[in-house]
Structure formats: structure tokens, C-alpha cells
Write a structure and sequence with these properties.
Layout: H1 9-12, H2 39-64, H3 88-102, E1 114-119, H4 126-130, E2 139-145, H5 147-159, H6 161-166, E3 171-172, E4 178-180, E5 185-191, E6 214-219, H7 227-238, E7 244-251, H8 257-268, H9 282-292, E8 296-301, H10 302-309, H11 312-321, H12 327-335, E9 337-344
Parallel strand pairs: 1-2, 1-6, 2-5, 6-7
Antiparallel strand pairs: 3-4, 4-5, 7-9, 8-9
Helix pairs in contact: 2-3
């Protein structure tokens, strides 16, 4: 999640007097530069900075050879000099994260339409990879983030011909919404506070299909919401779409000293994650998703994914890039991040054998 000021869902359709309200915390969209900033708004601005960190880490991983992502550098500013190089332990975390995202490319292309909804998408480059020359046909892709982030992404795309050529045929909405019709599908970028999404909202997200298999992505996004808020967001989609799945990637509090250190380090940066307020294990995530209506749920920590899913050849390639002395630190860190994937209905047959 990445920025401060967002219209709610109804304002996208021009309804009611809520137009321009900020992230559910009372910020007026038209407020001047000298308007006071509430505590909630200040926290939202801090969350915006985490997307910048992620973009820099991704580019560092690309530059070192861990990842292949030709679009990463467009979302990192060089005005202050070359981007900061990240240490190997951070690069490896990005490698595993990219590997999980990259499994999409191993799927045999199909003409059947499928849909992805990315929550708190920020500067993610996945749409450019998926809509590129080798992309999957008949794809509907939605990104949801703060209005500032949505507008910034549009400006970045317009200023970079390689990006503009992929997300071509662009159109803009009344607010910070914009969309594109690439050759192999449809793309929508929503400037929207996801905390406004709940199963009680009657308005449909513009462009959202309810008749195709849909994957909801939350990569360190829902963890910034309260449990009720995050469940409302997921129920917004699960109550509308029969064939739906979700992937959640986020830190987890295991009730040990390392977990306490994670929470303290986040607090030092003024970052609050409600999901870390109490110790929980991986089973808690699975139970929560089943309550919401997802039928099949599996989960693995990142260290287990690295061990089970990454090939020996890839591990050896990564080991040759640069040394990693902090092996135990890496294992501790990776053991405190979990990937949970859950699904209901048709369109996710390949997931039944993954675990």
C-alpha cells in the first residue's frame, strides 16, 4: 500500500457526499498544503514510503542478477543519485517473492478469460510482464491503491515509452482512475481506499468481472488493516465471484523474540500492522479464510518455499551472485513470512497438487 488520499468506491460512480474523503480517516481530497495531518493520515504517508523501499529493493535485486525485470527501474527515481544497493538477505527475499509471482508464467496459455485483482499494488511491475509480448491472452487485471499512487503510476507510464506501449489505449476517469486496453486483455488502475470495500457495498468496482475465475493478491497489504477491515475486503470479492482465490504474503507473529523485534523495528518507523498485534500461527490465516467462504486453504513460510519450490540449479545460481554470511538471520526472517493461498470453485485445478 502506498499513498495518502483516496476517494471511496461510491465516489467513483459520482454518488453521495463522500467524494474526496481521504482513506477513511477524514482527509479532504481538496485540502490545501497547510491543512493539518491527522495521525491516521500520517500513518498512511508512512505506508507510502514502504512501497518506495520495495521498489528500490526490487531494482537492487535486478541489478545484481537475482531477478529479471526490465520495468523495475522506471519506478525508482535517480534524482538523488544511484539507487541504494540492498544487502543479499533482502535480495533473496525479493527472489523468493518474485519466484512466487513467476509461477504464473509456467501456466499453459489459455483463451479462457481470467482476472487478477492486486490490492495495494503500488509500483508493482507485474502488469507490464503479463501484458507484454509473451503475456497471457484474455487477461483482466485490476490494481487498487491510494489515489496519489494511481495518479503517479499513470504519469510514470506516460513518460516511459516501453511502459506506454504495453498499457496502450489509455483512458482516465473523473478521479485518479485510469484504464488501458492492451492487445491481450484489459487493465484497470483504481485510486481507491480498499478499506471502503465491504460486502454491504452495492456498487461494482468498474470493470470487475464476476463470471470468470479471479485471483486476489495481497502482498503485504491486508496486514495494515484491522481484522474486520481485511475480512470485509475479501468478502467484497468472495460474495460476488463464485470462482475466486486469494494469495496473501505477509509477516507473521509467532510469539518469539524475533517476532517482538520485528514489531519494534516497525514501530520505530511509525508503521503499525494490526496483524502483528498478537501471536498467531499459520493455521490462524487458514481458519480465517475458511470463515470468509474459501474452501481449500494451504500455507507455507518463505523458508519452506525456498526449500521445497526453488530448484537446486536456481539456488546454486543465486549462491554464485554474492556471498551471504547472515544465513541464520535469513532463515529467521524467512520463517516469519508466510504465503497463504486459498480458493473456491473452478479455475484453480493446478493449486490442488501444490503444497
Amino acid at each position: 500500500m502506498s499513498a495518502p488520499s483516496i476517494p471511496n468506491l461510491l465516489s467513483l460512480r459520482g454518488r453521495g457526499g463522500a467524494r474526496g474523503r481521504g482513506r477513511g480517516r477524514g482527509q479532504g481530497r481538496g485540502a490545501g498544503a497547510d491543512a493539518p495531518v491527522s495521525r491516521g493520515q500520517a500513518h498512511d504517508l508512512t505506508i507510502q514510503g514502504t512501497d518506495t523501499d520495495a521498489a528500490v529493493s526490487r531494482l537492487s535485486a535486478v541489478d545484481m542478477g537475482y531477478l529479471s525485470d526490465p520495468y523495475a527501474r522506471y519506478f525508482v527515481s535517480n534524482l538523488g543519485g544511484p539507487p541504494t544497493r540492498r544487502f543479499p538477505i533482502i535480495n533473496r527475499d525479493n527472489l523468493v517473492h518474485s519466484f512466487l509471482a513467476g509461477t504464473e508464467g509456467q501456466e499453459v496459455p489459455s483463451v479462457a478469460a481470467k482476472q487478477i485483482v492486486s490490492l495495494g499494488a503500488g509500483t508493482d511491475t507485474r502488469p507490464f510482464r503479463l501484458f507484454g509480448p509473451q503475456g497471457r491472452p484474455n487477461l483482466i487485471y485490476h490494481e487498487i491503491d491510494f489515489s496519489v499512487t494511481s495518479a503517479k503510476k499513470l504519469k510514470t507510464v506516460e513518460a516511459a515509452p516501453p511502459l506506454a506501449s504495453i498499457l496502450a489505449n489509455r483512458s482516465t476517469g473523473e478521479t485518479s482512475d485510469w484504464s488501458s486496453k492492451p492487445l491481450n486483455g484489459e487493465y484497470f488502475c483504481h485510486g481507491l481506499d480498499i478499506r471502503r470495500l465491504s460486502p454491504t457495498i452495492t456498487e461494482a468496482l468498474p470493470g470487475l468481472r464476476t463470471d470468470v475465475p479471479t485471483l486476489i493478491l495481497s502482498e503485504c497489504c491486508l496486514c495494515y488493516l484491522t481484522q474486520k477491515e481485511s475480512e470485509d475486503v475479501l468478502e467484497y470479492f468472495s460474495s460476488r465471484i463464485p470462482n475466486v482465490a486469494v494469495i496473501i504474503y505477509e509477516p507473521i507473529h509467532l510469539g518469539d523474540p524475533f517476532s517482538d523485534t520485528m514489531v519494534s523495528n516497525l514501530a520505530a518507523r511509525n508503521i503499525h500492522m494490526p496483524s502483528l498485534e498478537r501471536p498467531r500461527d499459520e493455521e490462524d490465516q487458514a481458519a480465517r479464510l475458511k470463515r470468509i467462504g474459501f474452501e481449500t486453504t494451504r500455507h507455507l513460510t518463505i523458508d519452506r518455499i525456498w526449500s521445497r519450490w526453488v530448484s537446486t540449479e536456481e539456488k546454486e545460481r543465486v549462491d554464485r551472485l554474492e556471498g551471504l554470511d547472515e544465513v541464520e538471520e535469513w532463515q529467521l526472517l524467512a520463517g516469519h513470512y508466510v504465503v497463504v493461498w486459498s480458493f473456491r470453485g473452478d479455475g484453480f485445478e493446478g493449486w490442488r497438487v501444490i503444497g
